[in-house]
Predict the structure.
Amino acid sequence: MTPRFIVFRWTPAQRDPARRGRALAAKLNGDEWKKVLDWRGVLAFVHVDSLDDVIVLPAEFGFIAGPLFNRDNGCPVGSLSGAEAEALITTGGSDLFTKFWGPCCAILHDRGHDLFHALRDPAGSMPLYVWSSAELNCLFTHADDFLACSDEPVACDETMLSVYMVQPRILTRRTAIAGVEELLAGERLTLDRTSRERSFMRIPKRSGCAKEIGDFDVAASTLRRAICESAKSWVGYNALKGGRPIAHRLSGGLDSSIVLAALIEAGRADAEIVCFHEFPESTPEGDERSLARAAARHARRELIEHETCPINFDYAQILTAPLPVRPTHTEFSHANRSLGDAIAAHGATIVTSGQGGDQVLHRRRFAEIAVDAAYDRVGLARYFTIARDTAHLARIPIWSVFAKTIARRLRPEISFFNDAFTQAVLTPPSAVALAHVEWSEHPWMEELLAETPARAARAVHIGDLSYYYEVSEITRRFVTAPILASQPVIEAVLAIPPYVMTQGGTDRSLARAAFCDVLPEEVRARSHKGDTTRFHNRVLERQLPFVRGLLLDGELARRGLLDRAALETALKRDFIASGAIKGALMSAFMAEAWLRRFVQHRVRSVETPQGADGPAV
């Protein structure tokens, strides 16, 4: 459950923006919102359901929304003293994620200098969006709240929809609501009386590390300690919130098994952990119950096996879900709410999983790992060992590794664009060009060009972690605890060269070694994921009539954002077996589902007059 707040900021003493800001705030339902800040051009409200998740700073210095942990002892932070709050204000929040960490956002108000700061945590665990006009700014966490307050027509950014359909995992400030931007992980927005500035407090690169760890055993110990400390903090947070069972999504894979082991190793004696495992109906190649059972049995924890059936999916439910700021594949989870119901039935409010393991523990298999070793001048003998390991990991000839090393040394480059998503395209050709442009303007581009190839790719991969915190059935109903994707773990990983993470030619070899004594052998040795392709094909086949009707007669087609001929071909049953075509259909469907809700929301906003029962402003 993402803490829900909305903030209006205008230049103090300017009457017209002040009137407008208060008029917008008056549209909020007064019974659902609590005013937490009203001082010199800053007016902030927190939803009543989120009050327990917000630290209101003394002296109207602002607030911090989301869990916050102390760096020194890992304990949850429930309040800050006046001196601590004033220190944050003095530094513009720069010290916030040095002294603390957690999936949170901060709104800070320096009243003496009329400076306003909005910060997002470096792990990108909590979304924060901003809309700006010449005289008024609005910051919010939920698109529905912003749209409900808007006093002018809000347009769709059709370019963003086109970009999404060819690069659904793109990392960008841009949203599909014109004029609304996202603060990226580690970013700070500063507003003074006459200007605005956006800067990054943290970017996931090695220059932020005190010293790299090149020794494999030391690195393994460092990684384990960071993961266990993250788990310990979340167990403490759960106890603070009432000590309900922690629901752990246990796939049976390495990452979720490591998190389970860390929860137990760092947990309290009274901490109850219940494991949930989803398995696909009638899909033996995707059924990993044996591994999940082994991990749960080894950890001596209860395992609840939850069968997922195609008949239980209903894509129409996505059309009634809350509107995010842009389309996202995470919304497919709304189509089947049975897992969330099962977790809720056990009384859990916090959900853990192995999400983030691919990005943080370095599951990537590519030749650039050895290129970094050459950049680091590790010595010829060690380079050849790393090149051999990399060739084994990437399943390519060692000569290809040598060729890549020479090529990247001669011509440093970085590309964020993922060609896998363009193997089948249902948009006009211009959409691909738009996506290339959007990636090329990524605000990290210049910084990452100075990084070695594998480290730059790792930074982009870590940036992708924010995908897990977009709107989904689980994030909407529960607090998701990002144990692997937490700031302490990310910082530990950034201090370790990529070739140490994969030493020996095995993906995530460092993580396997770090937890070798607390994992069952079959989990530790596993190097592949179950194949659920056939299962998802059956889901899509059942939903195909609905998808066909939605797309062929939809808003995207009407606006010329889809190639109708390509779409009609893709919607034939014989074609959806292609992974590329299925992926393109999924992106088009989600873009259409988003656009329809946006249009309906806009119509409702026009039809609904401003109420008189908003909060006192």
Q: What stands out?
A: The mean pLDDT is 92. Residues 579-607 form the longest helix (29 residues). The chain has three domains: 5-202, 215-354+477-483+511-523, 533-606.
